[in-house]
C-alpha cells in the first residue's frame, strides 16, 4: 500500500509541478512583461533544483523502503524458523509424552486384562459346581415327578402324592442349600478378590513410593556428587580446608548414627584423602621454605660477619694510619702536640665551658668503641691492640675534635698569626682533619649500613618468628582437627559396627523365623498328605467293604427304584462334598504355595541383601582399616613434624639470642651516634644563634639608621600628619579601616594604629598620660630598654 501511494504521488508530482510553473509563469507575464526571460530562467533553475531534490528524496525513500522490506523479510524468516523449531520441539515432546502415556496405559490394560482373566478363570472354576448341583437337583426333581408310586402297597392310591410332595420339598431345600452354597462361594470369592485388589493397590502404592524414593535417591546422589565435586574444586582452588571439613561435619551431623549413608562415608573418606594430600603438599612446601630461610639466615650471618670484619678493619686502619702519620711527623721534627700546642693555649678559655660535657662523651665513645669491637666479633689480638692504644687514640681523637670544633675560627687565628710560622702546621692539621673527616664519613656510612642490615635482620627474624608461630598454630589446629576427625571416624565406625551387628541379629532372627515357618509349613504338608492318604485308605476300605457285602436287591421294581434314588442322592452328596473338599484343599494348597514362594523370594532377597550388606560392611571395614593405617602414618608424621618444629624453635631461640646481641650492639651504636648528633645539634644551635644575633644586629642597625634619618628629616618639615593623607601605619605598615583606627603620636605627631601606640609618657605639671610610639618612648624615657632589646637598661 505504501509503495502504491508513493508511485501515485511520484506520478502526480510532475503534473503538479508543471501546472504550478505554468501558473507562476502566466502570473509573472501578466505582472511584469519586461522581465519575463529572467523570471523564466530563475523559475526554471528553481524547478531543476526542486526536481533534483525530489529525485534525491525519492531515491532515499526507495532505499529506506528497500532496507525496511529486507529487515521485515529477515525478521519474518527468523520468526518462521523459530516457530518451526518450537513446533518441532513441541511435537517431539508431545509425541514422547503420548508414547510414554500410551505405554503406561498399555501396561495398565495388560495388567487389567490379566486380572480379568484370572477372575474369570476363578469364577469359571467355581460356577460349574453350582450349575451342576442345580442341574442335578432339577434332574432329581424331574425324576421324582416321573415316578409317582413310591409308597407301599397298603396305601397304593395315596403314595404318588406323598412322594411327590416329599421330593418337591426336598428339591426346594436342596435348591436353597445350593443357592446358599453358591452365595457362600461368591462371598468367599469376594473375600478372596477384595484382599487381592487391596494387595494390588498396596503393591501399586509401594511401587509408586519406591519409584519416588528411587528418584529422590538419584537426585540426592547427583546432589552429593555435585557437592563432592564442589568440595574437591574448593580444595583444588587452595581454599581453606577447615571450612570444607566444617561444612562436611555440619552435613554429617544432620544424620543420625544409624542413618549414615554410603555416599556420606565415601565423601568423608575422599575429603580425608584430599586433606592428607594437601597436608603433605603443605608440609613439603613448608620444608622447602624452612630450608630457604635457613639458607638465607646463613647468608645473612656470613654477610654480617664480613661486615663486622670490614668494620673492624676500617676502625683499626684509621687509628694505625694516624699513629703512623704522627710518628712520621715526629720523625720529621713536627710532633702533633708541638703543632697544636699554640692553638690549644689560645682556644683553651673558649673550650672551658664544653670540656666538662665532652669528656664523658669521649669516654663513652671509647668504651662503646671497645664494646662494639667486642660485639662485632673482633679477634682478641686486635682488641688488646686497641686497648693498648686507647690513650693515643683518645689524644688523637681529642685533637681531631678540637680541630673540628675550631674550623669556624680558623680565619681569625690565621689573621692573628699572619706573621707566624703556623701556616705550615695549620695546613698539615687541615689535611689531617680532612682525612679524619673522610674516614669519619666512611665509618658513618658503614654504621648506617650495619644498622640497616641489623634492622633488616631483626625484621626478618620477627617475620620468621611470626611465620613459625602461625605455622605451629596451624599445625596444632590441623592436628586437633585430625584427632577430632579420627574420633568422629572411630565413633562412626562404632556406630556402623553396632548397626551391622544389629542388622545381623535381625537377619538371623528373621532367618530363624523363616526356618520355623518353613518347618511348620512342611509339617502341615506332611499332615495333609497323611490325612489324604488316610482318606484314600478309608475310601478303599469302604469300597472293599461294599464289594464284600452281599447285595440284597429288592424284588419289587419300585423298591429297587427307591434304593437307586437313595444311592444316587448319597452319591451326589458325597460327590458334592468331595468337590467342596477338593476346592477347599486346592485353595489352601495354592495359598500355602504362594506363601511358600513369597517366603522363598523374601528369603532370597533377604539373603541377597544380607550378602550385599556383608560385602559392603567388609569393604567399609577394609576402608576403615586403611584409614586407621593412614591415621597412624599421620600420627607418626605429626611426631616427626613436632620434632622438626622443636628444632625450628631451638633455631629460632638461637636466632633471637643473636638478634638480641645485634640489637644491643645496635643500641650502643645508636647511643654513640645520638651523642655525636647532640654535639652536632648543639654546635649547630650555637651557630644559628650567633647568625641570628648578627642578623638582628644588622636589621636593628638598619632600622635605627632609618629612624634617625626620619628624625633628621622631621626637623626640617612639619611634624603633624593629617588623617586623610595617611592610609598605612608608620610602623607595622597595615592599612587602616573600621577595625584599625588612626591615632597620633603626641611627640612626633605621626599616625599609628592602636597596637603600635600602646606606650604612654607623663608630661606637664598635671602628669598627664600621652600616647607615644616606640621610638619616641625610647627617646623620652631614659630608663627604658634599648630599641632592639627586651630587658631594661641597667642603671649606673
From TrEMBL:
Entry-linked InterPro entries: Rabaptin, Rabaptin_CC, Rabaptin_Rab5-bd_dom, Znf_FYVE, Znf_FYVE-rel, Znf_FYVE_PHD, Znf_RING/FYVE/PHD
Localization per Swiss-Prot or TrEMBL: Cytoplasm; Early endosome
GO biological process: endocytosis; protein transport
Gene3D superfamilies named in the record: Single helix bin, Zinc/RING finger domain, C3HC4 (zinc finger)
Coiled-coil residue spans: 62-122, 269-314, 426-531, 631-717
Superkingdom of the organism of origin: Eukaryota
Protein name per Swiss-Prot or TrEMBL: Rab GTPase-binding effector protein 1
Organism: Daphnia magna
Amino acid at each position: 500500500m505504501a509503495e502504491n501511494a508513493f508511485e501515485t504521488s511520484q506520478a502526480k508530482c510532475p503534473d503538479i509541478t508543471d501546472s504550478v510553473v505554468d501558473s507562476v509563469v502566466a502570473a509573472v507575464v501578466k505582472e511584469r512583461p519586461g522581465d519575463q526571460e529572467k523570471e523564466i530562467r530563475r523559475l526554471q533553475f528553481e524547478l531543476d533544483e526542486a526536481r533534483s531534490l525530489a529525485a534525491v528524496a525519492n531515491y532515499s525513500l526507495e532505499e529506506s523502503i528497500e532496507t525496511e522490506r529486507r529487515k521485515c523479510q529477515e525478521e519474518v524468516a527468523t520468526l518462521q524458523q523459530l516457530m518451526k523449531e518450537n513446533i518441532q520441539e513441541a511435537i517431539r515432546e508431545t509425541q514422547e509424552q503420548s508414547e510414554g502415556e500410551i505405554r503406561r496405559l498399555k501396561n495398565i490394560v495388560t495388567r487389567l486384562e490379566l486380572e480379568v482373566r484370572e477372575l474369570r478363570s476363578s469364577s469359571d472354576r467355581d460356577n460349574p459346581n453350582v450349575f451342576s448341583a442345580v442341574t442335578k437337583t432339577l434332574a432329581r426333581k424331574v425324576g421324582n415327578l416321573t415316578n409317582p408310586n413310591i409308597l407301599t402297597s397298603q396305601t397304593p392310591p395315596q403314595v404318588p402324592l406323598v412322594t411327590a410332595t416329599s421330593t418337591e420339598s426336598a428339591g426346594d431345600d436342596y435348591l436353597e442349600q445350593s443357592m446358599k452354597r453358591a452365595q457362600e462361594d461368591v462371598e468367599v470369592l469376594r473375600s478372596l478378590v477384595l484382599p487381592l485388589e487391596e494387595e494390588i493397590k498396596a503393591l501399586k502404592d509401594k511401587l509408586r513410593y519406591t519409584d519416588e524414593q528411587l528418584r529422590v535417591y538419584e537426585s540426592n546422589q547427583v546432589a552429593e556428587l555435585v557437592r563432592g565435586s564442589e568440595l574437591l574444586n574448593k580444595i583444588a582452588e587452595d581454599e581453606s580446608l577447615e571450612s570444607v571439613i566444617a561444612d562436611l561435619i555440619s552435613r554429617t551431623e544432620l544424620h543420625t548414627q544409624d542413618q549414615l549413608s554410603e555416599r556420606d562415608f565415601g565423601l568423608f573418606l575422599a575429603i580425608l584423602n584430599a586433606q592428607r594430600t594437601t597436608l603433605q603438599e603443605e608440609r613439603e612446601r613448608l620444608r622447602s621454605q624452612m630450608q630457604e630461610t635457613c639458607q638465607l639466615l646463613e647468608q645473612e650471618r656470613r654477610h654480617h660477619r664480613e661486615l663486622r670484619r670490614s668494620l673492624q678493619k676500617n676502625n683499626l686502619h684509621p687509628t694505625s694510619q694516624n699513629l703512623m702519620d704522627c710518628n712520621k711527623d715526629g720523625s720529621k721534627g713536627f710532633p702533633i702536640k708541638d703543632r697544636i700546642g699554640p692553638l690549644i693555649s689560645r682556644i683553651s678559655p673558649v673550650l672551658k665551658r664544653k670540656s666538662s660535657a665532652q669528656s664523658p662523651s669521649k669516654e663513652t665513645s671509647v668504651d662503646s668503641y671497645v664494646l662494639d669491637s667486642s660485639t662485632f666479633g673482633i679477634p682478641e689480638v686486635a682488641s688488646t691492640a686497641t686497648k693498648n692504644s686507647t690513650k693515643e687514640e683518645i689524644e688523637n681523637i681529642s685533637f681531631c675534635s678540637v680541630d673540628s670544633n675550631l674550623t669556624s675560627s680558623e680565619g681569625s687565628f690565621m689573621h692573628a698569626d699572619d706573621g707566624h710560622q703556623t701556616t705550615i702546621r695549620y695546613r698539615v692539621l687541615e689535611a689531617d682533619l680532612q682525612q679524619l673527616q673522610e674516614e669519619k664519613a666512611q665509618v658513618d656510612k658503614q654504621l648506617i649500613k650495619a644498622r640497616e642490615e641489623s634492622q633488616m635482620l631483626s625484621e626478618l627474624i620477627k617475620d620468621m618468628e611470626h611465620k613459625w608461630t602461625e605455622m605451629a598454630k596451624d599445625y596444632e589446629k590441623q592436628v586437633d582437627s585430625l584427632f577430632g576427625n579420627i574420633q568422629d571416624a572411630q565413633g562412626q565406625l562404632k556406630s556402623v559396627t553396632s548397626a551391622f551387628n544389629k542388622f545381623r541379629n535381625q537377619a538371623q532372627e528373621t532367618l530363624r523365623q523363616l526356618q520355623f515357618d518353613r518347618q511348620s509349613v512342611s509339617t502341615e504338608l506332611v499332615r495333609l498328605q497323611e490325612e489324604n492318604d488316610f482318606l484314600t485308605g478309608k475310601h478303599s476300605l469302604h469300597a472293599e467293604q461294599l464289594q464284600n457285602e452281599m447285595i440284597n436287591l429288592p424284588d419289587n421294581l419300585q423298591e429297587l427304584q427307591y434304593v437307586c434314588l437313595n444311592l444316587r442322592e448319597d452319591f451326589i452328596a458325597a460327590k458334592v462334598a468331595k468337590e467342596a473338599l477338593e476346592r477347599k484343599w486346592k485353595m489352601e494348597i495354592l495359598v500355602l504355595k504362594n506363601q511358600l514362594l513369597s517366603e522363598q523370594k523374601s528369603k532370597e532377597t533377604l539373603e541377597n541383601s544380607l550378602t550385599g550388606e556383608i560385602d559392603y560392611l567388609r569393604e567399609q571395614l577394609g576402608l576403615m582399616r586403611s584409614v586407621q593405617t593412614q591415621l597412624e602414618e599421620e600420627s607418626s608424621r605429626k611426631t616427626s613434624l613436632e620434632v622438626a618444629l622443636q628444632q625450628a624453635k631451638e633455631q629460632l631461640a638461637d636466632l633471637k639470642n643473636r638478634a638480641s646481641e645485634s640489637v644491643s650492639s645496635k643500641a650502643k651504636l645508636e647511643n654513640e651516634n645520638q651523642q655525636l648528633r647532640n654535639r652536632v645539634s648543639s654546635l649547630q644551635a650555637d651557630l644559628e644563634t650567633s647568625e641570628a644575633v648578627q642578623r638582628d644586629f644588622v636589621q636593628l642597625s638598619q632600622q635605627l639608621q632609618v629612624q634617625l634619618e626620619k628624625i633628621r628629616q622631621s626637623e626640617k618639615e612639619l611634624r603633624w600628619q593629617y588623617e586623610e593623607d595617611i592610609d598605612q601605619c608608620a610602623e607595622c605598615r597595615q592599612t587602616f579601616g573600621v577595625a584599625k583606627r588612626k591615632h597620633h603620636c603626641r611627640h612626633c605627631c605621626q599616625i599609628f594604629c592602636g597596637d603600635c601606640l600602646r606606650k604612654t609618657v607623663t608630661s606637664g605639671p598635671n602628669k598627664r598620660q600621652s600616647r607615644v610610639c616606640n621610638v619616641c618612648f625610647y627617646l623620652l624615657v631614659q630608663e627604658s630598654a634599648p630599641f632592639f632589646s627586651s630587658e631594661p637598661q641597667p642603671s649606673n
